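Let's practice the habit of predicting before peeking. Look at the sequence and jot down your guess about where helices and strands might fall. Then scroll down.
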Amino acid sequence: MSARDAGRGEGADARLDRFRAIVGPANVLVGAAMAPYLVEPRGLYRANALCVLRPGSTEEVASLMEICARTRTPVTPQGGGTGLVGGQLPDLSGEGVALSLRRMTSLRRIDPSSLSMTVEAGMTLAQAQAEAERAGLLFPLSLASEGSCTIGGNIASNAGGVAVIAYGSMRDLVLGVEAVLADGRVYRGLSRLRKDNTGYDLKDLIAGSEGTLAIVTAATLKLFPRPAAVETAFVGLPSPAAALELLALARGKCGGEIAAFELIPQIGVDFVLRHGEGLRDPLARPAPWRVLIEVASLRPEGLSERLLALLGEAAERGVIADAAVAASGAQRKAFWRLREELSDAQRHEGGSIKHDVSVAVADVPAFLAEVEAALERAAPDARLVAFGHLGDGNIHCNVSQPVGADRDAFLARWDEIADVVHGIVARFSGSISAEHGIGQMKRELLARVKDPVALDLMRAVKRAFDPSNLLNPGKVL
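Done guessing? Here is the structure:
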């Protein structure tokens, strides 16, 4: 028996029996049954585990964590498994457990007066949106994976999505959390308060910590009045600089009514049209770049006119070349499919080296120009597919393999290409991870780019929450 096993005090079989006594035999998965929980969507990372645990309540999570703390068993919390940086997977040793929150899906409370609802961590984002809608309200977080990603995972990764320009990221949408700590204690912070100035804000530490500080079991979320009117336009323009000018015009004409402002290259539209079904280009003429702009208002009067006035002025100034305004809900969904299916369409074009980065909004055009020039030198035939949330500076700077190239050979250049992109991000004082997190993929890179004092403080916070490093070890730090 190794020293590590001796420190645990009991073997694997004894631990499995204890786990089964808490959650039931059907919710302790071993062997082949674990397979769906041990790989991430792109297949870049795989894992092994002693078992997969599927608790059904906060009390069960706490009891499981008490056993894991006593036996020094590493625990990796999981939501919907949609993360793209390997943060949801245990390591390959098989010594730790994966703890899936997917059974915890209850709506605990909805409070229209305080514009809040309390949900369990395993509820999918789409379910949370639907619960809010049933109450005549809006939960505004919106992601392409909303049908499978979970609220707990959204909090752990501080998810962003397309509506950050209007509502902020997930951290901005959380009023309180309930979470199980590394020793099995439960932090009961499900506040509905909008103002609470009583010391450190622990929920803001837990949000974005990728399961390394605590296991989120429930959260109280901010809700908003549902817009009475929504208008959506698909716009063609010559450059990211023109898109930035359009954003400035939109802020002047529509102000706080801007709900989304997405930048898409023509090559991205081409990919989606080539591999999607039932879609067509909304514009009569091709354009090097596109913007998907959506505006929403609590007052239905005049929103369409304000959007048309914006597009008219942009056309007169030569900012845009063409535009189409959605005339129906079906057309609006078709516009959004051109954005939401972009990542999947890249998969059909071969290997894709992906980057989730951000720079100041004003720097996006210059940043993209530098990336394009640098990639032309480093990988002349590779295809830059840079798209994302121009309104908050978050660009998915993806690089698809050259046509006809060997996929594996191209993906073997991941670190080389990433260094090119991240080097430019650093020159613009940007971030190497805007919304996907650090996980395994960017752990070593974080140590190179983060301020040393910030890293020291982060490590101190980790030690305070999890002194034995049992929660999602090997991630972030």
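How did you do? The two ends are 29 Å apart (CA to CA).
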